[in-house]
Design brief:
heterodimer; A: about 325 residues; alpha/beta; 2-enoyl-CoA Hydratase, Chain A, domain 1; eight-stranded mixed β-sheet; 14 helices; B: about 300 residues; 2 domains; about 15% strand
């Protein structure tokens, strides 16, 4: 069952009609509807193509948050072998919004870390909708430290609405935990490749995304604040999220122009949620390429290049 | 036409308008409501003389009180691209900048200076909450990088006074990128083994706390300063319960192990001198009046 987004309503209608016709034909064998249904299919395919050809930033936000989009766990299950989750920050708790551990990527041992949002009500609650608490970032710091000591590359998968704004999270030092995680990203002497697979929500995303290579899926977003949050602050009206999404320049395409990210990973027509397997495979290829680019670099060179890369952030605007 | 309209009326008008001017000589303390005379308040570093409430103070005023003899020289901060995203909400970003520049008389939300405090050479950076909420954009990033580079070059400690609502939304992703960018600056100091002291002032929130403002070797806060990642309103809306008294205030953070010290603004200078001189393995500060600052500092100021 496809979950249609608000802007996909016309598509839902056409696909629904085609489906109805086929159901009718199955009940009544004399009817020949295939021609008509095929015409509708064609129309639907065309419409899907048109809809996704030039998604507005706000629509991209919706696609990036689509519940059927592959999440961190899907990528880990499909692309990594021998995944061995490692839990806890050795301090307070294990944060289920962040998963991570040892795994093999194309037989190469790596450390993989990512935000997991969950796929149904129960798992979403367990994963806190991908909103990490300080323990999540401290677990990541621990894992990155381990990767550094044993010379294992780190792969991070980013998909979070943001760090969790809760009482306990604040009391236990949410901001310090995020700052330390970003700092750890900048310190490790092993390759760090980051992929924004859905939502790159503010500081909670930066904490894992300060990598040697940063890639984004075509319809993912990465922003300093959610469009809703920005709209309510600057427009004093949360309903102005379309305008805010536009102004914030949060799409992969704009971020590439600004040289904030290194590469865009193409999504299937109609978004990652319509071809999960294809998307996962494309991300796998990108990880392989990026790891290869960094292969054989010395610790010193890696750290120096990463620093240089982030020091240069923002030296390029969108131009006139 | 006659002397009444030509002479008497302007005279009356000028008398009345003159009566309006003294208004800003008095400031009302937002905490206890006392009326405070401007000179008295300034002498007390914008701390209420009645209830000790710490009001905002601009970096320039703070530095005048911090550095020996009020002498410091500004560290040049490279200019970033203006309005890199062509951002526009209800107002254009360059227009917001212009009005902030006009109302504050400052160029941007951070001032970097070098000089001596208690004869201890330091670099200091101060964030200006009155300039667009102190928000961290490219310029603030540049300022912190410049401050760290200068500190490393001169082998001096860096003191950073933070005050910001968070990242500057008008610079979108580029403001977010100042989080890793300023963290690189902190790394430079760390590598050079130079003390990095953060003084958190009211309010320091959002992405600023989740980067350079929480990475100090010593973390000091001014009393009752709001310090948080997510603001209290956002949290109340998320968890739908009332937050405890004093939540996310300096003293609360101190209790929860997130700060080293909470220090009154009037005692801050002395404390910074004491801490820094120990960290830099210098002899204890000389008590009492200090000799006049060295010639070179005066020359630097004159430049």
């Amino acid at each position: 069952m496809t979950t249609y987004l608000e802007f996909e309503k016309p598509l839902a209608e056409i696909e629904g009609k085609a489906e109805e016709l086929r159901v009718l034909a199955r009940q009544n064998s004399e009817m020949d509807v295939e021609k008509e249904a095929a015409a509708l299919d064609k129309k639907a395919a065309q419409l899907l193509n048109d809809l996704y050809k030039d998604l507005t930033p706000w629509r991209k936000c919706q696609v990036a948050r689509h519940p059927n989009r592959p999440h961190c766990k899907d990528y880990i299950d499909a692309l990594f072998t021998e995944f061995t989750p490692l839990a806890g920050d050795r301090n307070f708790a294990d944060d289920h919004a962040v998963m991570g551990g040892l795994a093999r990527f194309n037989d190469q041992p790596v450390v993989v870390i990512g935000h997991e949002k969950g796929h149904d009500t129960a798992s979403r609650i367990e994963r806190n909708f991908g909103m990490a608490r300080p323990e999540g970032y401290r677990k990541a710091v621990r894992l990155m430290d381990m990767a550094d000591r044993f010379g294992l590359p780190v792969v991070s998968l980013i998909d979070t609405p943001g760090a969790y704004p809760g009482k306990g999270a604040e009391e236990r030092g949410q901001s310090e935990a995020i700052a330390r995680s970003t700092q750890k990203c900048l310190q490790i002497g092993v390759p760090l490749v980051s992929i924004i697979i859905g939502e790159g929500g503010s500081g909670g995303a930066v904490a894992f995304a300060t990598g040697d290579r940063v890639a984004m899926l075509e319809h993912s977003v990465y922003s300093v604040i959610s469009p809703e949050g920005c709209a309510s602050i600057l427009w004093k009206d949360a309903e102005k999220m379309r305008e805010a999404a536009e102004a914030l320049r949060l799409t992969a395409q704009d971020l590439k122009k600004l040289e904030v990210i290194d590469r865009i990973i193409k999504e299937p027509v109609g978004g990652a949620q319509r071809d999960r397997k294809g998307t996962v495979a494309a991300v796998g290829e990108a990880i392989a390429t990026m790891l290869k680019e960094l292969n054989g670099k010395s610790r010193k060179d890696l750290v120096a290049a990463r620093r240089k890369k982030f020091l240069a952030m923002g030296s390029k605007g969108l131009g006139a | 036409m006659n002397w009444i309209s030509n002479y008497v009326r302007p005279k009356i008008n000028s008398l009345f308008s003159r009566r309006d001017t003294p208004e800003n000589l008095w400031t009302k303390c937002p905490e206890c409501g006392s009326m405070l005379f401007h000179r008295e308040l300034a002498d007390n570093l914008n701390v209420c003389t009645n209830c000790d409430h710490h009001m905002a103070i601009t970096p320039r005023k703070r530095f005048e009180a911090l550095f020996d003899g009020g002498i410091f020289s500004e560290v040049k901060v490279p200019d970033p691209i203006t309005d890199p995203l062509h951002f526009r909400d209800q107002k254009k970003y360059p227009d917001r900048m212009k009005s902030a520049q006009k109302s504050t008389g400052e160029k941007e939300a951070m001032l970097v200076a070098e000089g001596e405090i208690g004869r201890t050479p330091v670099v200091a950076a101060g964030q200006d909450f009155s300039f667009m909420g102190g928000s961290m954009g490219m310029y603030v990033g540049n300022a912190i990088v410049a401050a760290a580079e200068r500190a490393v070059k001169l082998k001096r400690p860096l003191i950073l006074f933070s005050a910001a609502g968070g990242a500057r939304m008008q610079e979108g992703i580029l403001s977010l990128m100042q989080m890793p960018r300023t963290t690189v600056a902190v790394e430079m100091l760390r590598e050079a083994n130079l003390p990095y002291i953060v003084v958190l002032t009211h309010p320091t929130t959002g992405g600023v706390t989740a980067s350079y403002a929480m990475l100090g070797d010593v973390q000091i806060a001014e009393p009752n300063a709001l310090i948080c990642f997510a603001g209290p309103r956002v949290i109340e809306q998320t968890i739908r319960e009332k937050l405890p008294e004093g939540f996310q205030r300096a003293e609360y953070l101190l209790d929860h192990g997130m700060l080293d010290r909470v220090t009154h603004r009037k005692k801050l200078r002395e404390e910074l001198i004491t801490i820094l001189r120990m960290m830099m393995k210098l002899p204890p500060a000389v008590a009492g009046d200090l000799p006049k600052p060295a010639e070179e500092d005066a020359a630097a100021k004159a430049k």
